[in-house]
């Protein structure tokens, strides 16, 4: 879990700003990533307190050092079966921007397992494809090929 992996054949003269770091994780056997700058911490899974009348993808809330943090089942949010809890299940605490510009909120996302931190050149990230009018692509910043997988 504490690995930094560089991808691509970058030359020594490249600027650091042309690269971004991403935390990779798995959901249902597929690899996903989140930009490292919005991640606050990674914690082992502990059962959240359920909150009535919440959408199915919200597992509940946890107390994180005195702060109440909502926990989302990311697999369920993506329209897949809910993530089963195993010994490698983690909660990634991310900071998300609220609808009120400039305000941020912490949120936990449940993932199957955390993999590694990848440093990826901006040139290696293809823009999100257009899936059509009925499919939301706002969850996808881009797609990158890493070790023969997308």
The gyration radius over C-alpha positions equals: 17 Å
Please write the CATH class name.
Mainly Beta
The portion of residues assigned to helices is under 10%
Number of self-contained structural domains? 1
What sequence of helices (H) and strands (E) makes up the elements? EEEEEEHEEEEE
Architecture in CATH? Answer: Beta Barrel
The geometry reads as globular
- What is the assigned CATH homologous superfamily? CheA-289, Domain 4
Order of the strands making up the biggest sheet: 4-7-8-6-5
- Parts with pLDDT < 50 across at least 5 consecutive residues: 1-6, 9-16
The major beta sheet can be summarized as: 5 strands, mixed
Estimate the strand proportion: 35-45%
Fold-level CATH name: OB fold (Dihydrolipoamide Acetyltransferase, E2P)
Structural class: mainly beta
**Average pLDDT figure:** 77
* Total beta strands: 11
Count of helical regions: 1
Distance between the termini: 20 Å
What would your notes on this structure say?
The chain has one domain: Beta Barrel (OB fold (Dihydrolipoamide Acetyltransferase, E2P)). The chain is 3% helix and 45% strand. The protein has one helix spanning 74-77; strands spanning 4-6, 19-27, 30-35, 39-44, 58-64, 67-73, 90-97, 104-111, 113-121, 126-127, 142-143. The strands form 3 sheets. Strands 4-7-8-6-5 form a 5-stranded mixed sheet. The relative contact order is 0.25.
Structural key phrases:
OB fold (Dihydrolipoamide Acetyltransferase, E2P), four-stranded mixed sheet, 45% strand
